[in-house]
Model the fold of this input.
Amino acid sequence: MAKHIEYEIQYLKGVGPRRAEVFAEEGIKTFNDLAVYFPRTYIDRSSMSSIAALAKILKNDNEENLRNVKFNEISFKKEYSILGKVINKKLTEINRFKKILNIIISDGSGVNCKIVFFNRADYFDKAVEIGNYLVVSGYPENDKFFEVNFVHPELEIIDESEQELYQKGAILPKYKLPDGFVKAGINQRLLRKIFRDLISSKKIILDETLPESLLQELKLPGVEECCQILHFPDNFQILEAARYRIKFEESLLFQLSLISLRKIQEITETGLIIEKNTENVKRFYKNLPFQLTQGQINALKDIFADFASGKPMNRLLQGDVGSGKTIVSMIAILAVVDMGYQVAFMAPTELLAEQHLHTFEKFFEGYNINIVQLVGGQKKKLRDEVKVSIVSGEAQIICGTHALFQSDINFNKLGFVIIDEQHRFGVSQRAELIAMAKKSHFTADIMPHSLVMSATPIPRTLTMTAYGDLDVTVIKERPKNRKAILTKVVYEQNRDKVNDYIKSEINSGRQCYFVYPLVEKSEKMELKAATEYYEELKEGIFRDYRVGLLHGQMLWYEKEVAMREFLDKNFDILIATTVIEVGIDIPNATIMVIEEADRFGLAQLHQLRGRVGRGEHQSTCFLFTKNHFQYHMKSAKIDLQDRKAAIIRLKAMEETTDGFKISEIDLKLRGPGDVLGTRQAGMPHFKYIDLITDADIISFGRKIAQNLLKDDPKLNKVENIPLKRAVKAYINSGKEFFGIA
Ligand code: ADP
Ligand code: MG
Done:
């Protein structure tokens, strides 16, 4: 690589030694570092809403209208900017400690907007003067008096000359301003000036990572041109092309990293060959009480293809609740056991591990297979016995929780690891699992097959990122005998009708779940709430019925007893907290009542609902909300965005049972970190890619990465060398995500 002269930024006009230190805190030391500090967003006259246009958007987006919004039009927490002149301001003293500042802005579009500061009102009162031009950015709302209303927005006062530029149609870049910048007097205006000097200095040399042929094929701007455009775009078309390039590049580097890391693994690892039609597998197929769905058949095809490949399987099996993943895994398990290897089945909770144990015992009855259980709550003596049977190889299927992978457990011939209902299982956790499995294995370079099963449908973008190193199989359909679940949002005033319906269903032999939200923070309080609620129903409206209770504070075997009783129809009604969320399978239960449903997350509601609709009977899910909620609840305590989100969640539940659709909506509402439940290590930190809006770029990057590696597996061709270097650096900067310490 050609060595560049690296210019230090303190020599740029407007920077100097003191501010250079502030920049250094953000990792910016040289001209080249600074050059790639790209704007966060842009403001221009054409794309920026006039206040009148914004008022219209907000009107369509308000709570009353949300009922009619199409899901693909949901624009949640979208940032808007406006530019206008301050025509009035007023500082009001509420009391000795509290002041409110209102600023009124006009942009000549016919509608004025109001800005409110409850905090630092004095400060902003001094900073903003009547006649100033302001760029206001934030999340506007509409209220009774002002159609457009920003609370605590980001403000930028722009000067006369920039105002002129802007009037002529210039696009103004806006940079991220860390606190340190603000304190050192580095504002947007200064940054724009610094960048002007930087670009015109001609002292930036950026390395091109993308091969020339790719740039031409995809018509992407080269790196230096791209840099210039991003700081000073002439028009939006050019800007879009430049933004596309940096996102695409990021996507490509990410996918190349994932794929090449996996390739390295594959080269060094051998997978066990597992045959397809072993004796017991054939027998199992013959005795199956139902026909497999096409999705289940396809999943088995994928799995057995992996088993035959000589490479270890690394597969994610996604399928909505009730799509029948367990049966699929059982067929694979039988084949592995028949080949003489052990199978570890890991469930997220002891309750589920227990349930799987029973399912296996039931389905494998008469197969002469030794199934053991390993969970955290076991007595030491029992645990020791189980440990011995695992290390001796006597135990063939080991069903348990993460206790399976504790350091004192040694497998004899582990051939297959299944991780059930685990949507928090990113690349780094998998690396951990592999390390543990390896350690426990009879031959160091043989890697057990692994199958991760998840009933939490994950949007495609997230699958390609968080699980980008896994092969993916999706079971789309549900078994044929299932009827769609009816879902209804109900208000307190209709409680009696619902209760009557529940009674009539129970009278015809069905069972019902009541789920109570975890309202209280303290576990004791929560227990009290659930217990009180249980007493109330049991002694009150359902006194003629048999009512059971299941909550998180019970010991695992107590939970198991409660579930058993419900399964054996000794209870008509089960009052539960969210412990029944995952995996529980009781086909006779057809009613799910969720109390205070507006408090639950969308994925959680969907999971809970999945507990019903598992047999041939029609099932119903009632989502109770308070009377005042009525799809446009107004409560001063709940923030508007949260109210909207609650409305959208309930509406989504009523409108669809498609888990993938639900997960897409959930992604928009909560963002990727919360959807996956892995804010830190589970997600890559993308600088430019937005996981919500850039699905196409992510999948395109994956495709190009695959093509590149097909053509040049080690990226050793001359034109790919810079790219290879960039991939190495990328992996290095994301060690935590990639699970390499
Ligand atoms: P999940 O994918 O949620 O783990 P399960 O494997 O627990 O689903 O299956 C749910 C229920 O459906 C189980 O009782 C199972 O025996 C049953 N089942 C699985 N596959 C079929 C099928 N093809 N036809 C009918 N019922 C099935
Ligand atoms: Mg399951």
Q: What stands out?
A: The first strand starts at residue 41 and ends at 43. The two ends are 27 Å apart (CA to CA). The first helix runs from residue 16 to 25. Residues 393 and 412 are 5 Å apart (CA to CA).
